[in-house]
Amino acid sequence: MLAKVRTDERLVHCRILRCFSITQTAMSFLKVMHSRAALSLAASALVLPLSLGAQTTTINQADIETYYSSSMGGYVIDDGNEYLINSPLSFGTTSSGDNLIVGYDTTGSKLTIYDNEVSNYEASIGYGFDSSGTVEVTAAGGNWVSHGTIYVGRGYGSTGELIVSGYANVTGNAGIVLGYAGESTGNLSMSGRSTTLGTTFITVGYDGTGNMTLGDGATITTSAASTIGSGFTVRGTGTVTLTDTWTKWESSSSINVGSYGTGTLTIENGATVTNTTSTVGNGNISRNGTGTVNVRGSGSSWTNSGSLIVGGYYGTGTVNIESGATVSSVGGKIGEQSNSQGTVTVSGAGSRWTNTSYLYVGDGGSGSLNILDGGKVTSLSANLGRTSASTATVLVSGNGSVWDISNTLTIGSAGTGTLTIENNGLVVAGALSLQTYGSIYLKAGFLLLTGEGSDDKNTLDALLDAGTSIYAWNGSAYELVTSSESALVSCVYYEHVEENDLVRANGYNDYGTLLTSAYAVPEPATYALFGGLGALGLAMYRRRKNASR
Questions:
Q1: Direct distance between the N- and C-terminal alpha carbons of the chain, in angstroms, rounded to an integer
Q2: Tens-digit pLDDT profile for residues 427-475
Q3: How deeply is 222 buried, as exposed, middle or buried, from its count of CB atoms within 10 A (0-12, 13-18, 19+)?
Q4: Which of 23, 202, 403, 485 meets the CB 3.0–4.6 Å disulfide criterion with 226?
Q5: What is the rounded distance in angstroms from the CA atom of residue 36 to the CA atom of residue 20?
Q6: What is the pLDDT of residues 245-278, one digit of tens each?
Q7: Residue 199, SS3?
Q8: Pair 281, 312: CB distance under 8 Å
């Protein structure tokens, strides 16, 4: 129903159900029965929805009879129609009686906030059983401020939708929950540069299903821990997708994906996400968490100012970094806890995972790291199979695929650790500590040691003679390498000239092919020059040319 009321010579178009008509020329009380058909007029002959003047209008419970029960109260839009607010409106800020509810026990109710501000205490979009509701905030002056929590899809089986576009802004001072109840669905979509949403936290898929899509430069900011795929009583499902350059999610706290539920985060086409720490896949014995993060495309980035855990307690986590995307963290753990499983795959030229400190693969559970087709991973130190009962596998394969470890690479110290380097892949480490439960498999791949502690070929001899598990491909199968089986690998020493200069390969032929013309600098593109060698290289910085050769 569309009402036209002349107020101070201004024609105002308003469509709001169950609200009170206030104008400067008349004060009318409209009593709204919970039955959608029963309307009674208290003070005048005007039978209208709420009429708003140009001035700010405040509506309290004293002005309007609202639907109320012990569990909810406030202003209810619930007749299946669409209504437009085209002037500022405050429902209140401090109590449950100041709530705004769109879609309580019907479907199709919609409220549009166009180029004006609306404020309330708590808000629910799609509240009742099998109900639905939509709130759209749009245009440069569109501003919705909720002093309490915003629930999108709150009731069992309900559907709620929040749309923000066209430079509009939404503020949720106490958080936003998408898909709160079981079998509910909550959708949030944002588009447009300078379109913003700020809140303390976002939970996408609490006990129901939540979907959040950001594009075309939209921005979300959060200040407390947020979750994609939660689960209070059942496993919730959450999906978040950010796409396009300038689109971003900025959090001054953690973002957890698949925490007791199932969560997926996709960052693509130049979008960015920044947060402190993150756990991908975390749960407990009754509700295992499953989390997946996809970061893809040049310019797409995920920045963790703390640690990144892939596969937490009773969780399964997967992270895919591909097509030139980048991920950074202080430290990384893949398969952190018992009963966990984590997998990280870095693939494609320009794709990088940078750790400024440690990287543990199999830190208590099962962990896998794959560096493929030109991907690169860096870390200060690395440990495969760090604790008992843990299992770690690392594969480095393809031209330009590099794992660069500044200090020591430890394999199999307490759990089982396996490193496979093949197809011209390269692992660079300051030093190698190959323990009882560790193995290295080489198939036309390269291992370069650059630290002070391994300054001659006796280091390799000692490793091989001690029976450590270094295997090389003999053309048909992997074969255990000893110092007497020199044909399987070649040992190469480097003379370091200056930092950032070329490091010339000086041949040392005790273990096979004599290298006389290979050069390398510490960048993935030049490591591919080793492509035709198909052997093991042990490189020593600060080593002078062996005079006895």
A1: 95
A2: 888 888 889 899 999 887 777 776 654 444 556 666 666 667 888 888 8
A3: buried
A4: 202
A5: 16
A6: 999 999 999 999 999 999 999 999 999 999 999 9
A7: strand
A8: yes
pTM for the model: 0.81
In three state form, how does the secondary structure of 237-287 look?
EEEEEEECCCCEEEECCCEEEEECCEEEEEEECCCEEEECCEEEEECCCCC
Six-digit token string for 402 = 């590099």
The enclosing H or E element of 59 equals none
Dump strand ranges (E) for 348-401.
352-355, 358-361, 366-372, 376-379, 381-384, 391-397
Give the pLDDT confidence of 175-223 residue by residue, as tens digits: 999 999 999 999 999 999 999 999 999 999 999 999 999 999 999 999 9
60 to each of 25, 29, 87, 326, how far by Cα in Å? 19, 12, 17, 51
Length in residues, the chain: 549
pLDDT tens across 7-23, in order? 232 222 233 333 322 23
The amino acid present at 459, given as its one-letter code, is T
Give the C-alpha separation, 374 to 423, whole Å. 11
Helix (H, G, I), strand (E, B) or coil at 121: coil
Structure tokens at 235: 């496993």
Any residues with CB less than 8 A from the CB of 38 and at least 6 apart, and which? none
Q: 202-206, 312-316, 374-378, 498-502: lowest mean pLDDT where?
A: 498-502
How far apart (Å, rounded) are the C-alpha atoms in residues 241 and 245?
13
Chain CA centroid to CA 379, Å: 21
263 phi, psi to nearest 5 deg: -135, 145
pLDDT, tens digit, for every residue of 468-479? Answer: 788 888 888 888
Pairing of strands 226-228, 255-259: parallel
- State the Cα–Cα distance between residues 317 and 293, nearest whole angstrom: 8
The pLDDT value given to residue 83: 79
